[in-house]
From TrEMBL:
Organism of derivation: Trichophyton rubrum (strain ATCC MYA-4607 / CBS 118892)
Source species taxonomy: Eukaryota, Fungi, Dikarya, Ascomycota, Pezizomycotina
Every Pyridoxamine kinase/Phosphomethylpyrimidine kinase domain range: 3-172
CDD domains in the record: TenA_C_ScTHI20-like (cd19367)
Protein's UniProt name: Thiaminase II
Taxonomic superkingdom: Eukaryota
Any single GO CC term annotated in Swiss-Prot or TrEMBL for this entry: cytosol
GO molecular function: hydroxymethylpyrimidine kinase activity; phosphomethylpyrimidine kinase activity; thiaminase activity
InterPro entries listed in its UniProt record: Haem_Oase-like_multi-hlx (IPR016084), PM/HMP-P_kinase-1 (IPR013749), Ribokinase-like (IPR029056), Thiaminase-2/PQQC (IPR004305), Thiaminase_II (IPR027574)
Length: 404
């Protein structure tokens, strides 16, 4: 049915057409969706002396009167009668808190309550609501549910609308449709190129600590301190991946986490061999006390794993896995890196080795796979986890640079 009176109050249908609608269309109408001025107009055209409602009780009575004109159901829209939180007439505009749409089928009154919106973008709300109800009914959804879902659709359209030009703008019909801000298979590229990630990632991967490693300029005692703390961190890194297995929902994901734990075990053996070349025994390392930096970082990851889901944990782990691979690859191929006589070159070689490169590839593929199944809102949550874990990685380098 054509809109008779717009949201702004303009009568769009000539008076003689109102009579035609009332006499010839309403008896065949499944759901009539008038706003309050339209309901009053229809009743007055039929000879009923009616006033505009001032409260919810009046509005329900108005809906029942309009129902007598012939429609099977009436949904009286409450946008012209905002109420306060107690469902009473507000004493001021600031007191308006809710709007209530009233559905009546001749026997039962159903109320659909929504938060009152002060958005100016309400153009097309009536047409959108009627169309949404019709679409739901065509999908064989029961009438009350069809109306409620349509009301929620329009409510979200108003609340997520964008100001366009001047005057009353349209509602946002696309609030439940979204596209991810990256092409499939390029989620990691998207993250690392984000303006809020780039400076943190650069500070991590180009830190003074690793730059000094590449030219053999880091004091040995500082590096030994780092090696001890890195081993203690790897213990918790393995625990985190074991937790990821528990958080997994498929055998393949459990197996992947188990493979990573086994890789960490292999890495720790290499780590111990490397530590031995600096005079550090396994007993020396395992009897050492964790630094506050190591504790903060490793427990952050475990906390994300405990409080979040599997994917959140993967993003807390990702900076370490991806970062070490990226750092080692860059240093290994950098012309300014010193190979001959560099006590730390073996450290770089460990992270460009085939087994570690394979682990990075597997981890990256896993993140890319699961990134296709998340919402834009989840993307932001995961990026913030990634940033925090990267900041804690920077703290780890700072610790190594200080040697304490």
């Amino acid at each position: 049915m054509k809109v008779m009176i717009s949201t702004s109050g303009s009568q769009l249908l000539p008076q003689n057409a109102v009579k035609a609608v009332r006499e010839h269309l309403l008896p065949y109408t499944t759901v009539l969706t008038p706003n309050i001025p339209e309901a009053v107009l229809l009743l007055r055209d039929s000879g009923v002396d009616v006033k505009e409602p001032e409260n919810l009780h009046d509005a329900i009575a108005l809906a029942k009167q309009v129902h007598k004109l012939g429609p099977r159901h009436i949904l009286l829209k409450g946008g012209h009668l905002p109420l306060n939180a107690q469902r009473e007439k507000p004493t001021s505009d600031a007191d308006a808190a809710i709007v209530i749409d009233i559905l009546y089928d001749g026997q039962t009154v159903s109320l659909v309550e929504a938060t009152f919106s002060r958005s100016k973008n309400t153009h097309g709300t009536g047409c959108s609501l009627a169309s949404a109800i019709a679409a739901n009914l065509a999908g064989e959804i029961e009438i009350t549910r069809a109306v409620r879902e349509a009301c929620r659709y329009v409510e979200a359209g108003i609340n997520t609308s964008t100001d366009l030009g001047k005057g009353n703008g349209p509602i946002n019909h696309f609030h439940s449709l979204y596209s991810l801000p990256y092409a499939p298979g390029h989620f990691i590229d998207y993250i690392l190129e984000r303006p809020d990630v780039q400076p943190v990632w650069q500070a991590f991967t180009e830190h003074e600590f690793v730059q000094k490693l590449s030219i053999g300029a880091l004091p040995v005692e500082n590096f030994k301190w780092y090696l001890v703390q890195d081993y203690l961190y790897l213990v918790n890194f393995a625990r985190s991946n074991a937790l990821a297995a528990y958080k997994s929902h498929t055998v393949d994901e459990i197996a992947m986490s188990a493979q990573i734990v086994l890789h960490i075990q292999h890495e720790m053996k290499l780590h111990l061999d490397y530590c031995a070349s600096f005079g550090l025994s396994k007993e020396d390392i395992e009897s050492s006390k964790e630094s506050l930096t190591c504790t903060a970082y490793s427990r952050y990851i475990l906390d994300i794993g405990q409080s979040g889901d599997w994917l959140a944990l993967q993003f807390a782990l990702a900076p370490c896995l991806l970062g070490y691979g990226a750092i080692a690859q860059r240093l290994f191929h950098a012309e300014e890196s010193v190979r001959e006589g560099n006590n730390y070159w073996k450290w770089i070689e460990n992270y460009v080795a085939d087994d570690y490169s394979a682990a990075v590839k597997l981890g990256s593929a896993t993140l890319e796979k699961h990134s296709r199944q998340i919402s834009p809102f989840r993307v932001e949550e995961l990026v913030q986890i990634f940033i925090r874990a990267t900041e804690l990685e920077i703290g780890f380098w700072d610790m190594g640079l200080r040697g304490e």
